[in-house]
């Protein structure tokens, strides 16, 4: 293991030891975990080693420093080390951003990472942390533009250059530039065929355009390229399953859920894997598939996170499971915990948002679960253009669009029934080839002729 770099450790042109952050490839010390372990062994007081380790823990959103003493101590230790050493201005900014993120102050953390990128546009850690945090806020334009601003400073010979293509592609598709997003992702895959992030971006494009056959063929043909990516394999299987749900091939979707999505979420405990499992069961249930036993199994994974309240996106997915499993206590505890935090949110951006968006969405899901469809529509409909604020992708948030349509169709209120038809027509205009949309249209027409 080389001596840990003391200055400018994250500029990819200067510091190749940080290639462990490549999304798909593992460095010779054993991937991200092995690299961090080696850094900490070589120098336990290396500030940027702590920034990387603690930052990755925080951005994973798997635990809250508000409850997790180990994580809170790690943040405190990072700040203390930074204050006791003569470190560079860039390193100080990295520490500041991690501390801000730990308090839930996502907008300010992003401002600090962007400040780093002004002077150090090839700082992949700042770029990736900002990218992920914009994602958590549903900040689609900043997520795209953050990468666009630095792209001219990167050259093809630089390590990780190809992975910027996947990042930029994702920002493009989340701002509806689907054709450009597909082109950029394919450029990335030409350079790095096993870049699971670019593959994932292509999957999104086909999902949003409802090009189901293209999506199925693409995911099957590239499975060998992305299935080895620990961080994204389960998510890519989730995307694959969505195409099967579109085509009413529910058994095929369930097979992917059982053999990949649930299995991997249980093994990894990674939040992306967990929320995908939640979302998939909810989508299948809305399609009329019985998943009752699977809700109970998944509850064992989500219930320990009931009090986390790291992101509203996570909370809403945990609530799906407790509702699906008829675990009233967990559902009520999650809602009440969120309500309590919303009273005095402090600097926490997600807790600020809880009062106006997160809590009403939780209440709408609870009303829907109880068969109070009119109340669910009354809560959800005013928020339809604010749901983006809970974070996630358009594809992930589409679950809530579907929920609103189902609630409107099932409501006894005649105006809601008309609204349901309008929402389906609107959906059809955006993705005209969607079999799922056509099924919703048939339901809307059949129920209330």
Highlighted features:
TTC38, repeat, 0% strand
Structural commentary:
It is a single chain. With 449 residues, the protein is mainly alpha-helical. It has a domain of 138 residues. 70% of the residues lie in helices and 0% in strands. It has 23 helices and no strands. The termini are far apart. 49% of the residues are buried. The N terminus is likely disordered.
Fold blueprint:
Layout: H1 31-42, H2 47-59, H3 69-84, H4 89-102, H5 106-119, H6 124-137, H7 140-150, H8 161-174, H9 178-191, H10 196-208, H11 212-221, H12 223-226, H13 233-246, H14 250-268, H15 271-286, H16 292-302, H17 312-324, H18 328-343, H19 349-369, H20 373-380, H21 394-410, H22 414-430, H23 435-447
Helix pairs in contact: 2-3, 2-4, 2-6, 3-4, 4-5, 5-6, 6-7, 7-8, 8-9, 8-10, 9-10, 10-11, 10-13, 11-13, 13-14, 13-15, 14-15, 15-16, 15-17, 15-21, 16-17, 17-18, 17-19, 18-19, 19-20, 20-21, 21-22, 21-23, 22-23
According to DSSP, the number of beta strands is: 0
Can you tell me the overall shape?
globular
Question: Main sheet, how many strands, which sense, barrel?
Answer: none
Radius of gyration: 22 Å
Structure classification: mainly alpha
Instruction: Classify the helix fraction into a percent range.
Output: 55-70%
What is the string of helix and strand elements?
Answer: HHHHHHHHHHHHHHHHHHHHHHH
Strand content: under 5%
First-to-last CA distance:
72 Å
| Mean model confidence by pLDDT | 92
Low-confidence stretches: 1-10, 12-27
Number of helices: 23
């Amino acid at each position: 293991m080389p001596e840990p770099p003391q200055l400018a450790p994250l500029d990819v042109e200067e510091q190749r030891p940080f290639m462990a952050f490549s999304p798909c490839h593992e460095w010779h010390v054993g991937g991200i975990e092995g690299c961090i372990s080696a850094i900490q062994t070589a120098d336990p007081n290396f500030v940027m080693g702590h920034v990387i380790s603690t930052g990755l823990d925080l951005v994973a959103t798997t635990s809250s420093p508000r409850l997790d003493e180990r994580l809170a101590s790690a943040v405190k230790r990072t700040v203390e080390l930074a204050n006791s050493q003569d470190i560079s201005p860039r390193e100080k900014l990295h520490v500041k951003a991690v501390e801000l993120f730990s308090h839930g102050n996502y907008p300010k953390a992003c401002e600090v990472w962007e400040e780093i990128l002004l002077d150090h546009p090839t700082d992949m850690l700042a770029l990736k942390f900002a990218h992920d945090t914009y994602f958590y806020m549903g900040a689609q334009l900043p997520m795209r533009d953050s990468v666009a601003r630095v792209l001219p400073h990167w050259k093809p010979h630089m390590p990780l250059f190809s992975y910027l293509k996947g990042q930029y592609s994702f920002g493009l598709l989340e701002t509806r530039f689907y054709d450009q997003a597909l082109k950029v992702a394919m450029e990335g895959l030409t350079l790095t065929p096993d870049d699971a992030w670019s593959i994932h971006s292509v999957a999104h494009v086909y999902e949003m355009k409802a090009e189901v056959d293209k999506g199925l063929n693409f995911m099957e043909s590239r499975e060998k390229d992305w299935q080895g990516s620990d961080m994204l394999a389960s998510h890519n299987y989730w995307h694959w399953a969505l195409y099967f749900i579109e085509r009413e091939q529910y058994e095929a979707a369930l097979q992917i859920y059982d053999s990949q999505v649930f299995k991997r979420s249980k093994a990894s405990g990674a939040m992306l894997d967990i929320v995908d499992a939640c979302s998939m069961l909810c989508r299948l249930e809305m399609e009329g598939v019985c998943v009752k036993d699977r809700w109970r199994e998944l509850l064992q994974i989500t219930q320990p996170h009931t009090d986390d309240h790291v992101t509203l996106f996570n909370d809403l997915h945990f609530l799906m499971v407790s509702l699906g499993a008829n675990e009233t206590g967990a559902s009520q505890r999650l809602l009440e915990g969120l309500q309590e935090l919303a009273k005095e949110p402090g600097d926490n951006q997600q807790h600020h948002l809880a009062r106006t968006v997160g809590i009403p969405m939780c209440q709408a899901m609870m009303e829907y679960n109880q068969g109070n469809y009119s109340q669910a529509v009354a809560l959800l409909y005013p928020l339809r253009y604010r749901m983006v604020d809970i974070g996630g992708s358009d594809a992930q948030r589409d679950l809530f669009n579907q929920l609103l349509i189902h609630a409107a169709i099932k409501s006894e209120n005649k105006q809601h029934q008309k609204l349901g038809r309008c929402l389906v027509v609107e959906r059809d205009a955006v993705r005209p080839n969607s079999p799922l949309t056509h099924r919703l249209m048939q339901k809307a027409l059949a129920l209330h002729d």
